[in-house]
Amino acid sequence: MQEEDVERLVQDAGIIRHRGKIQAIIGNARAYLQMEQNGEPFADFVWSFVNHQPQVTQATTLSEIPTSTPASDALSKALKKRGFKFVGTTICYSFMQACGLVNDHVVGCCCYPGNKP
């Protein structure tokens, strides 16, 4: 993507028009591709922060669910070292939740491991 692409995207009312975030998306895509080209599969990299096993939170209430963990802190630091931007520990933890690296359903939830809907 070129600067004119960034300019076009900054004008697009259908997306977040923060120039820095748009540039970060482009840069993050490049950093991701660089990792893959260097033989470091992104999935293996990410899963390594949870020892390749989903982590299950033992929360009984929503207030017990963290917004970050030492694993998300480490993931954030490692991503930044590889050139990623806008990858703080909280967004990394949200990513880990969305991708199934952590299961933060409360113990009584039907989605908690072992519970039936």
TrEMBL record:
Entry's EC annotation: 3.2.2.20
One protein family per Pfam: Adenine_glyco
Residues holding Zn(2+): 105, 109
GO biological process: base-excision repair
Domain of life: Bacteria
Keyword Hydrolase: yes
Protein name as catalogued: DNA-3-methyladenine glycosylase I
Species the sequence originates in: Escherichia coli
Taxon lineage: Bacteria, Pseudomonadati, Pseudomonadota, Gammaproteobacteria, Enterobacterales
